[in-house]
Amino acid sequence: MANPWSGEVRLQLDGQPHDLKLTLGALAELEGELDNETVLDLIERFETGKFSTRDVLALIVAGLRGGGWAGTAKDLLSVEITGGLMEATKVAAQLLARAFVMGET
Predict the structure, then answer these.
(1) How many CB atoms are located within 10 Å of the residue 46 CB?
(2) Which of 5, 65, 79, 104 has its CA 20 to 30 A from that of 14?
């Protein structure tokens, strides 16, 4: 079961549950995929509703990688995501929110 307190979000791929998480390494890898943009630029697109399906896919891949998955974006081209694009978008937004929410100190 995904632990939201540690930033995890669950997504079903081909009927199998996967726990996604944006670790520091996953975020660095994601930023490398953003073509001269930062993760803050990506967050701004989500906040304003101007994100693309490419943004959603990049976040899903980064979250999967942070959760221990060894695949690539190409591996997701033929995968069925339970809930489709809407679920993938929701999970991507949750990943960002959980990675950047400040906890109590």
Answers:
(1) 18
(2) 5
Tokens of 12: 């079903």
Number of residues assigned to the chain: 105
- Spatial contact of 102 and 62, defined as CB atoms under 8 Å apart: no
Whole-model pTM: value is: 0.90
Residue listed under structure tokens 């949750």:
94
- DSSP calls for 51-105: --HHHHHHHHHHHHHHTT----GGGGTTPPBTTHHHHHHHHHHHHHHHHHPPPP-
Residues of the chain scoring pLDDT < 50: 105
Question: Which amino acid belongs to residue 91?
Answer: V
**49-71 pLDDT, tens digit each:** 999 999 999 999 999 999 999 99
The sign one gets for the Cα dihedral 35, 38, 42, 44 is: negative
